[in-house]
Amino acid sequence: MENRLLLLLLLLIFALFHRLPSATSQSFIGVNYGQVADNLPPPSVTTNLVQSTTISKLRIYGADAAVIQSFAGTGISLVIGVSNADVASLAADPNAAAGWAAANVFPYVNASSISIVTVGNEALESGDSSLASNLLPAMQNLLYALSASTAVSAVKVSTVHTMDVLSQSDPPSSGAFHPELVDTLKGILGFLRDSGSPFMINPYPYFAYRSDPRPETLAFCLFQSNPGRLDAGSKLTYANMFDAQVDAVRSAINALGFPEVEIVVAETGWPYKGDPDEVGATVDNAKAFVGNLVAHLRSLVGTPLMPGRSVDTFLFALYDEDLKPGPTSERSFGLYRADQTMNYDAGLAKSSSTANASPPQSNTTSNPTQQSPPTAPAGLTQPAGWCGPGATLPAAAGGGSLQPAVQCFSAVGSRAAVTLGRLFSYVALTMSILRQ
After folding, report:
1. Catalytic one among 122, 125, 262, 330?
2. Per-residue pLDDT reduced to its tens digit, 266-300
3. N or C: which end of the chain has fewer CB within 10 A?
4. What is the model's pTM?
5. End-to-end CA distance of the chain
6. Running DSSP on this structure, what letter comes out for residue 411?
7. Of 331, 269, 295, 321, whose CA–CA distance to 417 is shortest?
8. Tens digits of residue pLDDT in 365-400
9. Which of 2, 260, 267, 330 is flagged as catalytic?
10. DSSP string for 347-376
11. 330 is catalytic
């Protein structure tokens, strides 16, 4: 019995530490590289900037050859895009799709890491019914064109949506797509399931706060201390708006019968400046949102519906884009200015990735009974955190059932704290299994 216990514990410890993200790179953190500007540095300069951070994924809105080539050999994963203007031609003619792939993907596969091609951007919400009807055929034709080369077999094909595809998102368990989009989305989700591609969505807690500018809503959107919001349908309590929005999308996808389709957050961010009537657009709020979101992702807490892992998330945006039309906020989402200086420090630089982001401050729980964390040893700061029910556990070896464990997660983003919490939970679980 003792040898069996020791072996199980060693295997658990190895698995836990093996899963930890790198101290210098988080595979789930990306950034959008918009180029609606006339003052941006050359792509090579941008490449050096991204490599100085813990960002490991980059999304561009087209297929700029200079950008793709500049990231060759860096290991930075790229998401490139087919413009809305090209969707109809790719849908109508498989040869057009083959030509697009031959021009924009095949020449770079040996050196650049292209992971996803997005066909159109926010096409279903564009108001152009022809664009929406052409979306799935264009995706199908492009995937077929890419399948002609085994070198790009890992490249996925998807498209990007705004939260406006949802008719209902509050509470998250009631998440549902607009009825008029359901047939189209069923086709797209079936394509994504069959090809192993993600559903890509743009949740922005900033806009949720603008529609409900109360102090408690701001704290909820910024991952700061708040009482949480109970979802009466799922009986889960939400500590922040980001998780609530992502889980609303999860619920909507599940309701259509596609629980296996993964979600990728293609855009999210917070403007650091706005017009006088743009409530909440401040440097402090932008720093709090992005910094706390990064810490939340690093913690691997996940969302209440998808616990224990972080959704791949692309921050918006790398630079300010000075030619964007609209209010001041549209030109003020950049993490960096055109001269590569920070608009604010969100803790993304490799030299300060664990030191500068202010930690999320939430003690809400999805378990009705709040569990107090253990007292920190002298000289150490006890991280803020929250407790929630763990994933459903398999039946014990003897056929008996096991109660779901309660997992407590650090909201600060300390990988060591998360690992220790998981270790103690798994040790307790192992002991219970051995007693069966």
Report:
1. 122
2. 999 999 999 999 999 999 999 999 999 999 999 99
3. N
4. 0.78
5. 12
6. S
7. 295
8. 333 333 333 333 222 222 333 333 333 323 333 333
9. 267
10. S-BTTTTTTSSPPP-----SSSSPPPPPPP
11. no
